Amino acid sequence: MIEEFNERTLFQDIKRLIDSEGLVTARLVESVNRTAQMASTTVPEIQDLFSRWLALVGGEVLRIASSSPDMDISATAKSIGIDNSSLLSLLLMLHREGKISIDSVRLGSGDGRNKEICSCLMGDEED
């Protein structure tokens, strides 16, 4: 009985280890993909397009910010057509450029999922 318990415990430990390695592999694949995507932006034409996109979307963020000092990140990101992380990055860029001042941040509880990694790589069904 004790031997059976030890085998079951060992099996569960090995399964957790394999699952962890799968998640690490998913993160590694995502990092490699991001690096490849970033390398492709070194083409001057792509850099110019990205700069224009940043100016366009950044201008929209400034327009929205001028109407109210409070910003609902999810609603604003959705209305612009970007995700929350992109909006936060744009806000930080505008802050660094001196175009806005970030005076307050309200935090909520996370759901424990890394939003930067596609759920298809994490083994989740939702995205």
Which key terms come to mind for this protein?
127 residues, mainly alpha, Arc Repressor Mutant, subunit A, 2 domains, elongated
Task: Please tell me about this protein's structure.
- The chain is an all-alpha fold and 127 residues long.
- It has 2 domains: 1-40; 43-102, Arc Repressor Mutant, subunit A (Orthogonal Bundle), CATH 1.10.10.
- The chain is 69% helix and 0% strand.
- It has helices at 2-40, 44-67, 73-80, 84-96, 119-122.
- Helix 3 (73-80) packs across helix 4 (84-96).
- The mean pLDDT is 81.
Helix fraction, binned, reads 55-70%
Question: From the helix content, strand content and strand pairing, which structural class follows?
Answer: mainly alpha
- Report the biggest beta sheet as strand number plus sense, adding barrel if it closes: none
- What is the count of helical runs? 5
Principal-axis shape: elongated
Structure at a glance:
The protein is 69% helix and 0% strand. It contains five helices and no strands.
What does the secondary structure layout of this molecule look like, with pairings?
Layout: H1 2-40, H2 44-67, H3 73-80, H4 84-96, H5 119-122
